Amino acid sequence: MTESKVPDIIIGRMPMYLRALTRMAEEGKTITSSQELGTRLGLSSAQIRKDLSQFGEFGKQGTGYNIDFLAEQIRRILKVDGLWEVALIGIGHLGTAIANYGGFVDRGFQVAALFDNQPDIIGKQIGRLTVQPMQTMVEEIRHKKIRIAMITVPAKVAQQVADACIEAGVRSILCFAPTSITTPKGVRVEYSDPVLHLQRMTYYLQS
Amino acid sequence: MTESKVPDIIIGRMPMYLRALTRMAEEGKTITSSQELGTRLGLSSAQIRKDLSQFGEFGKQGTGYNIDFLAEQIRRILKVDGLWEVALIGIGHLGTAIANYGGFVDRGFQVAALFDNQPDIIGKQIGRLTVQPMQTMVEEIRHKKIRIAMITVPAKVAQQVADACIEAGVRSILCFAPTSITTPKGVRVEYSDPVLHLQRMTYYLQS
User: Fold this and answer.
1) Which CATH number fits domain A3-76: 1.10.10.10, 1.10.510.10, 1.10.630.10, 3.40.50.1400?
2) How far is B132 from chain A (nearest CA, A)?
3) I need a surface site. Which of A101, B68, B200, B206 has the fewest CB within 10 A?
4) Do the beta carbons of residue A155 and residue A180 sit within 8 Å?
């Protein structure tokens, strides 16, 4: 098993498989097939079999996949079978919604530190966390050995905040600011920007 | 120009190009190159030239791209040179953050209707909009000829809400609920789920 050789695009689909399997388990199902997964995800069953075969043999021909087992294997592959601490920077409307979101912990993540630079936001209590001032961010991320940051600051300061996070030891950044940030080798960035998704669909719309 | 033949994956990158170009224009730049765009976006300059060549000739060898012109062309290709009305369903923490988000209008979208089924949320005023009850949704979307919906409801009701939107005439859905929804041919779905992004990066993290 040479996981490092698996193409990024396949790794990119694994979280979708995990999400679909988790949902099936919640619905009380115990067994699924590449056909059923394909229908849920809008992919061909051949694609799903090919993707999963990159990591080993997870199902038997004709009997399908055991949902709990397959979900557990994907969690292990993606390293989300434990709990990663995540720093959240920028506690405006969106940051607050994310800090309040209950769907992280059972999927491998825990928001562990909140930062902002606005005097009226610093000190605010969200759940069991207190919003801390930006000046303490690098020290705090380093001290807690946090490797993942979600950035919900305005576009014009996103690069600067990302640079500080990386200096502190962050290696994965999820950027919600509507801008691109550049990072050194070894640091991954993903973007969450609803407008990018919307603009991907209007091309196909008849007005 | 046979735009319908352009691969989905290239259409998927065009909004990123547009975002980078808009940011460059804000920085006061007027000309860019495939090299510069590539560096910002983590893509090769060859990839960028190849993608853009699908739609015609936007730059001259050696002189680069005129940023405003290229941005305008991409807006036209993606059909975001006008303003699409969007329905937003589910006005909890996330829905409220999205309804308050100021970054839609200058990128081609306007949140034009808010819906929820909670008595304490219905009637709430957000900006110039009032949250309307779910029972009026189909009629309202149909009446306003809205083709795009953002769904920020709990996972277990996302499919049902999507079905109602489609019945009302919606053809593009951006789903923020952490679940997959199935749609008939001709209806596109994109997903915004921060955990999918996070899980795509942990695979590469050394713990």
Assistant:
1) 1.10.10.10
2) 21
3) B206
4) no
Q: Do B199 and A42 touch (CB under 8 A)?
A: no
Considering only the beta carbons, identify the residue of A80, A107, A199 that sits closest to B108.
A199
With a threshold of 0.90, tell me whether the complex ipTM lies above it: yes
Nearest to A56 by CA among A38, A77, A37, A35: A77
Q: What residues have CB less than 8 Å from A125, skipping those under 6 apart? A: A131
* Confidence category of residue A207, pLDDT binned at 50, 70, 90: low
Are residues B134 and B73 in contact, defined by beta-carbon separation less than 8 angstroms? no
Question: What is the structure's pLDDT at B207?
Answer: 64
**To the nearest whole percent, how much of chain B has pLDDT over 70?**
97
In sequence order, the β-bridge partners of residue A188 are A172
pTM for this structure? 0.86
Q: A33-51, pLDDT tens digit by residue?
A: 999 999 888 889 999 999 9
Handedness of CA A122, A183, A100, B90 (dihedral sign): positive
Judged against a pLDDT cut of 80, whether residue B191 lies above it is answered with yes
Length of chain A: 207
* Position B68 confidence tier, pLDDT thresholds 50, 70, 90: very high
- Altogether, the residues listed in chain B come to a count of 207
For residues A98-109, one letter each, b for 16 or more C-beta atoms within 10 angstroms of the residue's C-beta and e for the rest, the string is: bbebeebeebbb
Burial of B173 (0-12, 13-18, 19+ CB in 10 A): buried
Q: How many CA atoms lie within 13 A of B164 on its CB side?
A: 18
Confidence of residue A4 (pLDDT cuts 50, 70, 90): low
Tell me which amino acid residue A53 is. S
pLDDT score recorded for residue A1: 44
- Pick the residue from chain B with its C-alpha nearest to A93: B97
> Which residues from B are below 8 Å from A76, CB to CB?
none
Determine the average pLDDT of the residues in A75-97. Answer: 96
Look at the domain B3-77 and name its fold.
Arc Repressor Mutant, subunit A (1.10.10)
